[in-house]
Amino acid sequence: MFQSDGFRALERQECLRLLAKAPVGRVVYTRQALPAVLPVNFSLDTDSSVLLCTSRDSDLVRAIDGVVVAFEADEFHAEHRAGWSVVVTGRAAVVTDPAEHERLLRTGPDSWMPMRDGVFVRIEAGMVSGRELAGARVHGTA
Amino acid sequence: MFQSDGFRALERQECLRLLAKAPVGRVVYTRQALPAVLPVNFSLDTDSSVLLCTSRDSDLVRAIDGVVVAFEADEFHAEHRAGWSVVVTGRAAVVTDPAEHERLLRTGPDSWMPMRDGVFVRIEAGMVSGRELAGARVHGTA
Question: What was the ipTM of the complex prediction?
Answer without folding.
Answer: 0.90
